[in-house]
Specification:
homodimer, 7-stranded mixed sheet, globular, Aspartate Aminotransferase, domain 1, alpha/beta
Chain lengths: 350, 350
Amino acid sequence: MKYLSDLAKSLQPYVPGEQPKEKTYIKLNTNENPYPPSPRVIQALRDTDAAALRLYPPPESDELRECIGKFYGVDKSMVYPANGSDELLAWCFPAFFVGAPLVINDITYSFYQVYAKLFSVQTQIVPLNEDFSIPVEAYLGMDKNMIIANPNAPTGQILSLIEIERIVRSNPDRVVLIDEAYIDFGGESAIPLTARYENLLIVQTLSKSRCLAGLRCGFAVGSPVLIEGLARIKNSFNSYTMDTIALKLAKAAIEDKEYFLDTVNKVKATRAWVSAELRKLGFRFADSYANFLFVTHPNMEASVLFEQLRRQGILVRYFNLPRIQNHLRITVGTDEEMKQLINKLKEILP
Amino acid sequence: MKYLSDLAKSLQPYVPGEQPKEKTYIKLNTNENPYPPSPRVIQALRDTDAAALRLYPPPESDELRECIGKFYGVDKSMVYPANGSDELLAWCFPAFFVGAPLVINDITYSFYQVYAKLFSVQTQIVPLNEDFSIPVEAYLGMDKNMIIANPNAPTGQILSLIEIERIVRSNPDRVVLIDEAYIDFGGESAIPLTARYENLLIVQTLSKSRCLAGLRCGFAVGSPVLIEGLARIKNSFNSYTMDTIALKLAKAAIEDKEYFLDTVNKVKATRAWVSAELRKLGFRFADSYANFLFVTHPNMEASVLFEQLRRQGILVRYFNLPRIQNHLRITVGTDEEMKQLINKLKEILP
């Protein structure tokens, strides 16, 4: 490790769910959407002029910002896209969080802790309730910067818009970052609140509800001062993080509201019957508001179940972490994939 | 600026050359390649399966790494691609540079200073010689981390492979980062040295010689320990920085060696005659080894010339910075574009 900085030596990078090269797995481990992107995205790809790739992309991504702003009813000056929502989350650390403690909860997207380490930000942990619900009262009047994933991952539980507003309003001098990666699968986005609360920043992704994990596009919505913070970091880091093709395809995806709603509804319908089937098999879990289920079974260790499913050709996600080492996170796939999951589980369970 | 960290408030972001939305300009301001990408890139775009975009990209970019490694005769474990070479340069700061002074020269890619500020790295400046050549002796035995752009930008001047090796060999305990963004236009890459010097990291881009500024792809080549440093930062920042399409198109570009050499040779041929013409018009400058010329004229202020050219529909780059405020950086375009440049200059010059 000679040549590495002490910081680099100390890091424990995030480990994403595996992307197996064999095609034989039913892949329920990274919360990808089981449906292809909108036909408009496919058309936009066909229409792309490859010759134009010789030129740099528009550095401020104006057209995409305008399109997202229009969809959500906010001005484009309140929108900021990036190379996946992870990039936006990363930028928030130097933009807003360095120099003060940051509040996160104990069971959430584990990348937050990795960013905190990379940017030397001290975290203050709020434990989830016993049932993994988010303890709203604990966040009130903390006067601290905070990140809340809503719905939370990997638990799938949610806060209402009223609860989010209470938290945002009671911490007026601090940045409240709501990570809405999964919001379209059952929650109500807090984007409308950004017009009234200057300290509220929302981050969303096109990887889940827009079926575009392979495109790398996310966006933030917030007050102009928060967008200025993001822009300062982006422009001190990488002038052009979204490429010309991704900008066009992301726009096409946002513009196809009908396909988006249809796809999300299909996932929700599948989630409903799979939830019922899993409960019949003895699994225990809270209702999910995301495109995954976070389940535990009284008769079989999650780690064992994980391995058995893997051997049977089904990949799910297992986290060997405190409080959740007996849980599995299972992505909601197509009906056909989930039928196979249920059948395999019937074979595996004692 | 409420809500911004003190760090964010203190930043002076990099300002890239403008990307005008009107199409009327002859654009010689951002060192883009005047030729479209390889026909293989265009074919790869046509062959892209949009449905596959629902899945995350391969996080370790194996195929592209293998392809680049093959081209340069190094193992894929020594190659690391990213979302533009800027992203790689940024990662180098937390990976290798934080906690110790970093040597750069006074006239070079101005983004280095921006990264240094973002990651709180102190810089030590080595001034270029009077004629803007790089003072090799000054770098010997410094025992400091350093970045050298070779050819240097915006000056276009170059170090030989022997000079690079002297610098690398004489700083064995520090990382020597050679930014070879423009190397294909006339220099000799130091990539072959990476097999022998564990402390040497090379960064290149597909934005210039591969005509793909709009795709956002760069790559690093270096010893496995340096690649490990980059991987640790990447995986603490953004698990998937290159999207599925960019990975494919970048591979197609690297594979078309013939088109690459042909394009580079065309740019070099244009540069040769334009250099002669500009000298006839009284411009002074050292021979350029990049796809731009860094010129000054005894009879007209660079800032005035810049404005006059702009008014005439030709965009070049002017930096209002110490030592170079009477210079212009002019990208080498097509023969036709450069003929128009020469004609306009004949009209403008006194």
